[in-house]
Write a structure and sequence with these properties.
mainly beta, 8-stranded antiparallel β-sheet, 2 helices
Length: 284
């Protein structure tokens, strides 16, 4: 609400001119809208011998106000006459989402094909069930920003200028290894917004395998104990957040080589490390 026009500075803030208030002030109102379109498909199949398969796939697109993922968020550009520049794919947009689930009852023990003689070995290896969940989905969009010094519009964020018609995704992970071509963007030194639209790049996708092993022991038909061993991200596949992307942090030497990314296009952090969980459940 307390926005300032381009090159308006703190003195140009709307509430500053009327009341001397320079702090950011939020006003909740019905501004803008969101659209979500998707193609959703699902395949379910139950096979013999205790095997089932479930495959779900969603192809979607979520368009709305850049940077707004919930009702309490604010758009990066607050100037009413330029509010249309905020329209883009949203921060939570994931075009592809694939989930594969299966349940396997191991073929051992009473009523199964193998080791069904009710002996000691049959009692030990019988009744086990294996569950798998494989998730593969796209990364989320992110903005390439720049210093807002020349913009001089408090309350709004500055976009970078697009220097190349196509931005190459290099896929680097770690310090000094750019995820995207940092020379495809440049800072803005004029009193205007940059030409790079919001959310034109997309971060790394996610691949994860969750694994579960279950066994139920019954006593006198009334009581049961279920043993559960579960692992999230069983393969310990690394997951990465979106890279830092402020073009004003880029450092080049005299030959034009990148010497310091300074958080510009490094993967900033990881998440979803492998976890194990064990449990017992008593039923009666």
């Amino acid at each position: 609400m307390n926005w300032s026009p381009i090159n308006g500075g703190e003195a140009g803030r709307q509430l500053n001119k009327q009341f001397g208030r320079t702090a950011s002030t939020r006003l909740a109102g019905p501004i803008g809208g969101f659209t979500y379109d998707s193609l959703q498909a699902r395949l379910q199949r139950r096979f013999r011998s205790g095997y089932s398969l479930d495959v779900s796939y969603t192809f979607s697109k979520n368009i709305g106000i850049a940077g707004v993922s919930g009702s309490d968020d604010i758009a990066p550009i607050q100037i009413p006459g330029l509010y249309y520049l905020n329209r883009s794919v949203t921060n939570i947009d994931r075009p592809h989402n694939l989930a594969i689930t299966n349940i396997i009852e191991l073929p051992f023990g009473r009523g199964k094909r193998l080791l069904n003689d009710r002996g000691v070995l049959s009692a030990i290896v019988g009744g086990w069930q294996v569950n798998n969940l494989i998730s593969i989905y796209s990364g989320t969009p992110f903005n390439v920003t720049a210093s807002g010094t020349s913009l001089n519009a408090p309350g709004s964020s500055q976009r970078a200028d697009l220097a190349k018609p196509k931005v190459e995704i290099l896929g680097g992970h770690g310090k000094g290894q750019p995820y995207f071509d940092p020379l495809a963007f440049k800072p803005v030194t004029e009193a205007r917004f940059g030409t790079a639209a919001w959310n034109i790049l997309r971060g790394p996708g996610v691949r994860q395998w969750d694994f579960g092993l279950f066994r139920e022991f019954r006593f006198k038909e009334r009581y049961s104990i279920q043993f559960r061993a579960e692992s999230f991200n069983f393969s310990n596949t690394p997951h990465f957040n979106n890279p830092g992307a402020n073009v004003s942090n880029l450092r080049l030497d005299s030959s034009g080589n990148i010497t310091d990314l300074n958080g510009f296009s490094e993967i900033t952090s990881s998440f979803g490390e492998r976890q194990f969980r064990f449990g017992l459940r008593l039923g009666f």
